[in-house]
Write a structure and sequence with these properties.
Layout: E1 2-5, E2 25-28, E3 31-34, H1 50-54, E4 61-64
Antiparallel strand pairs: 1-4, 2-3
The structure holds iron/sulfur cluster (2 copies).
Length: about 70
């Protein structure tokens, strides 16, 4: 799976964008989004998803259950 940003809760602080080791987070049309094709759940980089760790709003960066689980290759 990848993480996703709940757009209605995101304050657009941009804090998560620079923290992602895979450059999966970007601003699109005024809101921040995670590209599920790039998100590795931070596996192999950090113990904790960095977008979750940095986000000031609880439960805004969450697992997206609609995409398959990420597997380290
Ligand atoms: S979980 Fe990690 S890899 Fe995925 S978007 Fe968040 S910071 Fe980037
Ligand atoms: S850190 Fe949280 S509030 Fe800030 S841009 Fe990212 S998802 Fe939005």
């Amino acid at each position: 799976m990848a993480y996703k940003i709940i757009g209605s809760q995101c304050t657009n602080c941009s804090g998560c964008e620079a923290e992602c080791p895979n450059l999966a987070i970007s601003e699109r049309g005024g809101t921040f989004v995670i590209d599920p094709a790039l998100c590795t759940e931070c596996i192999g980089h950090f113990d904790t998803p960095q977008c979750v760790a940095i986000c000031p709003v609880d439960n805004t960066c969450v697992i997206d259950t609609s995409v398959p689980r990420y597997h380290e290759s």
